[in-house]
Specification:
Number of strands: 0
Distance between the termini: 20 Å
Number of helices: 4
Strand content: under 5%
Low-confidence stretches: none
Structural class: mainly alpha
Radius of gyration: 14 Å
Length: about 80
């Protein structure tokens, strides 16, 4: 889930806890795919709910702090 997606879904009314759960699930599924091959079975680290919430809160905080502009929008 990209930063832009997180901000859009947050604006639509999803709570940061729900966004963190979705982000965590998507991230961990990606790690699961990487770990599926034998040579990469120990690569990557699953994240917890707390780590996912921290990531989502940081994105939302930076969005609010910059006056409603995300990093991607500022660069354009």
């Amino acid at each position: 889930m990209k930063q832009k997606e997180i901000i859009e879904k947050w604006k639509q009314g999803l709570s940061k806890e729900v966004l963190a759960k979705r982000y965590r699930r998507e991230y961990n599924q990606g790690i699961k795919v990487i770990r599926a091959s034998v040579e990469n079975r120990n690569k990557g680290k699953y994240i917890t709910n707390y780590e996912a919430l921290s990531y989502v809160e940081k994105i939302i905080y930076m969005y609010i702090k910059k006056g409603g502009k995300s990093n991607e929008e500022k660069n354009n």
